[in-house]
Amino acid sequence: MIEIEKLTRRFAQRTAVDDLSFRVQPGEVLGFLGPNGAGKSTTMKMLTGFLAPTSGTARILGFDIRRQTLQAQRLIGYLPEGAPCYGDMRVAGFLGFIAEVRGFRGAEKRRRVAAAVERLELEKVLGQSIDTLSKGFKRRVGLAQAILHEPPVLILDEPTDGLDPNQKHQVRRLIGDLARDRIVIISTHILEEVTAVCSRALIIAAGRLVADGTPLELESRSRYHQAVTLVGEGLEQNALAALPGVAGIESNPREGSLTVLARPGEVIFPQVNALIHQRGWQVRELDVERGRLDEVFRSLTRGEAA
Ligand SMILES: Nc1ncnc2c1ncn2[C@@H]1O[C@H](COP(=O)(O)OP(=O)(O)OP(=O)(O)O)[C@@H](O)[C@H]1O
Question: How far is the CA of 14 from the centre of ligand 1 (A)?
Answer without folding.
Answer: 10
